[in-house]
Design goal:
Elements (H helix, E strand, L loop, with lengths): L1 H28 L2 H28 L5
Length: 64
């Protein structure tokens, strides 16, 4: 049972490492403008998530 899990774990780790490596290589090849646009887009997404979670916490039960 454990012998089949180890190769799957190793394959998953290798896959995740390769995805990160190729992501970093793609980021190096991109221009500064496209990086700035991505930062602005993610910042907007973060703010909208923060607003939703804040609104949800205000409507929930309060602690004494």
């Amino acid at each position: 049972m454990t012998t089949t899990r180890v190769p799957l774990w190793g394959a998953r780790l290798a896959y995740l490492l390769m995805v990160r490596l190729f992501g970093w290589l793609a980021l190096l090849a991109r221009s500064d403008t496209s990086k700035d646009v991505e930062i602005l887009w993610y910042g907007t997404r973060l703010r909208s998530c923060a607003v939703r979670s804040l609104a949800r916490s205000r409507t929930g039960p309060t602690a004494p």
